[in-house]
Design goal:
There is one protein chain. The chain is mainly α. It has one domain. It has two helices and no strands. InterPro entries: DUF6435. This is Lacal_2735 family protein.
Length: about 60
Amino acid sequence: MKRVATKIRRKLNRISIEKRYQEMIEKAYNFRQTDAGLSDFFEYEANKLLAKMHHLKAE
């Protein structure tokens, strides 16, 4: 039972991270048109989230 709960938590965590990643990528794209500094910031943050997603899938 504990293993199932852990698996569900990981899946929910992964879904949350994927959603945040998508939002960051969209913001980076939108800012690319007006503010390169903010675009770089959101792209950097999105890449950190992507690394977390890959780490969760590897576990």
